[in-house]
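Need Oxidoreductase's 3D structure for a figure. Predict it.
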Amino acid sequence: MLKAGVLGAGHLGKIHLKLLNQSSRYELIGFYDADTKASAAIRKEFGYKSFPSMEALIEACDVVDVVTPTVSHFDCAQKVITAGKHLFIEKPITQTVEEAHKLLTLANKHGVKGQVGHVERFNPAFKAVKHMIDNPMFVESHRLAEFNPRGTDVSVVLDLMIHDIDAILSVVDSEVKNVYSSGVSVISETPDIANARIEFENGCVANLTASRISMKKMRKARFFQRDAYISVDFLDKACEVVKMKDAPRRPDDFAMILTNAEGIKKQIYFDNPHIQSNNAILDELETFADAIENDTTPVVSLEQGTNALRVAMQIIDNFKKL
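Structure prediction for Oxidoreductase:
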């Protein structure tokens, strides 16, 4: 078993602590949080060992799970990597692309593995259809949330939209060509609602909307490709796949047939992929253990986390030009 520790014991950090403690792949060593009162309360309630310093925790672990505020990601991750420990780090990987590149260089130098916590990659609905998404040419995503002060230290792009950026980059096999965006600050100092258009070299276009001031919650993505439409509901963990194929000469009475302007007939049919229920956070942590033990590339590598951050920062930079 890999000895694991958690840096940061806030809302998400406590979830990570609980899951690492439950996992058969890890031995939870303990945690470190700069808030001594909060640390004492967690230690008393759950019995997890708290360490007196970040360095002491890192020294005791094989894997360090960084769940601190984004502003401290780079400093924490740098210490983990230079100590020769494997790194799991919550999204976004760092505050800047430059910091992310430094971590990539350090990880290669010290021979450690790193994974970024883009948890939607492990959403059971997305996992059920990801293999069906083949060369999408138009993508539309909406990620809407009710206002919560937690997370407003960063733009809605880094708080919410980056989930969809990463998911889209994982299925579009092409380089980004152009990025256009607009964002509005309503209650926070940084944008609370944003829209972005990402154009890829292969002609694919992705239109993304994110808001943290919505009256309702929504986390949906729709992928359009030749002869198929695939919808993923990340919130309700549901998916829909609609496909088209050449219509048979003699379709049955219940077949749904469309005829285009050229007279070509297509039959519409529905595919209902099986959705395997899971705990997405536990899955991402345990697949990281697989990557370490089998010496394979993590599902969401530091490089992929950097690519998602790069696009997110392009979107944010465009706000400043408005």
